[in-house]
Design brief:
8-stranded mixed sheet; D-Amino Acid Oxidase, Chain A, domain 2; 9 helices; FAD/NAD(P)-binding domain; MTOX; FAD dependent oxidoreductase domain-containing protein; globular; 27% helix; alpha+beta; binds flavin-adenine dinucleotide; oxidoreductase
Amino acid sequence: MYDVAVVGAGLIGSACAKYLSAKGLRVALLGRSEAQGALGACYDEGRIYRIADPDKVWADLADLSIKEYEAIKDEAGESFYQENGFLAIGDPALEYIRQVEETMAQFGTEGKDYFVYSGKEALEEHFPFLRLPFDEHSWKGIWQPKKAGHLSPRALAKIQAVLAKRNGTDVISRNLEQAEPQDDHWILHLEGSQQVEAQKVVLAAGWMTKWLVPDKSLDITTQMSQAVLFEVTPEAATSLASMPVLILRGPKDPEEFWYILPPIKYPDGRWYLKMGYDGNMLNQRLESKEEALNWMKAKQARPELVSVAQQMAARYFPGQRRPYIDYLDKGVAVASGGNGWAAKSSDHIGWLASEMLSNSSEWATDPVSKALFPKELFRASFKASERSRL
Ligand SMILES: Cc1cc2nc3c(=O)[nH]c(=O)nc-3n(C[C@H](O)[C@H](O)[C@H](O)COP(=O)(O)OP(=O)(O)OC[C@H]3O[C@@H](n4cnc5c(N)ncnc54)[C@H](O)[C@@H]3O)c2cc1C
């Protein structure tokens, strides 16, 4: 019998399993590997990491995770991140720009830890690869040169699972099909008629999480997320090697943004510059599990074009746009709701979940967590019509 079964060997699940087993618990990490057809948001090479987030809670989660990167790299003997810096650009009137600047002011000193550029000319002079459109609009940029850049989510998930295994976690590469409650534990039915028993279960299955709890409608919206990979020559990759990762908020819709990562070498040996878009114009909601699965599979099956490849995974947004780290029921918890922003913060989200599952107080008791993360921040919420049923 396991103390905890972690469902989902993606970024949050593997981090959670690593920390749970480090505390001496018997842990099973469940879920297909990428080669077996895992469907997650982490099977890619490029994710932005940064502290400069408009939301202080996300900035704290990122900060505490980024502080662990070097230790994770050293323990694994393998790197997964590249410190290229981060640049946020937008109209100075945007809330986003004001909030990012405010966050950075809480984390450091202007002129040392972050730099502010006003106007198109100042930005283009400092970042020669940049050409800003919309001459009629003014621009402001906030540059975080350190503790920011890009990471490989694929490598990080793999490394965290390896470290979990090293700590004693049993990694079982099969998906959960059904969870059956017993008086004081759970029987988990996995693919291939295998089953495991555990006292507690934590659902960390990313965008699939809400469909693993059918009787309680978790407030999570699942949406398409699409990015384009532009192939560049190795020479162009070298000349753009110092380019920071970049988020640009357009002047028209404050909810919409574009992000660009410097060229990254992908497993096919080619260099790609990744450009993604977040907004409703291209990314429709995926309402049912079947619709989401079909969309993901159809897109994955598309043959890659020679120099421009589309890359996609579903994103999911929990009700309050912060992750859910909470018990749903006796012995069943959730650690999910990355919002499209949790790759960089997954280590600390996994750690908080491990504290919740292992402490008798059911939440982290260390002074930092107590000061920064009251449990209420990460409470799971449910669709309005379901609340009365709980
Ligand atoms: C296109 C795109 C761009 C993004 N860009 C960024 C970025 O720049 N910076 C950033 O910080 N974040 C970014 N994110 C978000 C980040 O990748 C996610 O927040 C993160 O991967 C979430 O981690 P997770 O563990 O919740 O889910 P995932 O990493 O998706 O892992 C979930 C795992 O659960 C498994 N699973 C599903 N169903 C089952 C089942 N029944 N049984 C067992 N296992 C199951 C899946 O196969 C998968 O392995 C981006 C996401 C997308 C889609």
